[in-house]
């Protein structure tokens, strides 16, 4: 019941209390009261408002979609949102990003030390799982101390170990799968593949068959599947088992983009062998950051002066890094292409590109440009803008002068590119990015990519020059751009009232309220 504002004189309360005392009953107020000049004031309280917590594992790539989802639920569905996030030694960009969020509550779970559990060969997925595992007592403490019982708990892909805590407090629980439906289908079917296939997946001569979905080339499998003897593969398998115990799965995609795959996830019996029981699937995307221009920085001011769709934006995400040699080849390729560009440059990483993900990515830009070829900045000063460490990607991709995006194909970046109608040069580095690149090039036709994966072989300057020219200055590039623009419209339709993702989000909220 929703109570209106009302004021009761103090002397009336005294009478009620004396009556209660005589009748051996007690008077309780289950809502806030304020004493105002000898009266009790009862402020308005909406007892129907849901309270949902969303857990984000460490890393900007995980935090961004969680915050966007939280903002969507808070703004459009009047749900109180609490974000739980684990701080790490490299969390300064995350913290700065969180400070800008005013309409949701942010709780930082105390950071944990896993140095005694890892060595130099421990993969990022394993490290993320260990961080969450070690933080479980802190997460439980936060949830237990909340004044309002949670109506639901949503976790990202690496937060599934929180499942027992949700069960302990009898909280409905959902997984937010922040990548594509195709990646989710592979993920769900992995338990079956693990039993059916012997040896390494990457050594297979035939594509991996996923029921009801596009087959996957062995070269494009997600990183955790590349070495079945590594701990991260076994952690990945545990993740697939944990998924089956949730009440529903949210995906940051939309029906028009991945209709066949979404249909398979919902109804293909062979694919659902990986689940204990069929789970509700909610394609609620594309969820992406919105443009929030408060002042036009140097990059935007430079873009304002350029021709329509003439600029190639080059960025490999908050956790992406190239080798020293590849950075030099990329610089020469851009210069030789004679196409204008904005390039976000980060220090190179000459080891496993996976290792750059959890490293500090703060604002220290000293020495960033020393890895570029000698004289590069001088020779390209009229055709390019080189930005150290970080740039506002959402604002740049939405700018009318940007006509292409060379990207690592992280799903956040992919969604931000597609929803702005910007075609891509796919440059996958780690995680599920090779799958994303394959879908963008082979299925959707909105991207081109090197002949050999950049993680397998150095991409030479001549090939880079050719890809840039194809995308930015040929009929083939124009055709690719038109396909990207159609997907932009498709995304807008999905999110508009009555669209597939709009309806799916409403179904999710209805389910939350029912539970």
From TrEMBL:
The keyword Glycosyltransferase applies. This is Glycosyltransferase. SUPFAM superfamilies: UDP-Glycosyltransferase/glycogen phosphorylase (SSF53756). Pfam families: UDPGT. Its EC number is 2.4.1.-. InterPro entries: UDP_glucos_trans (IPR002213), UDP_glycos_trans_CS (IPR035595). Belongs to the UDP-glycosyltransferase family. Keywords: Glycosyltransferase, Transferase.
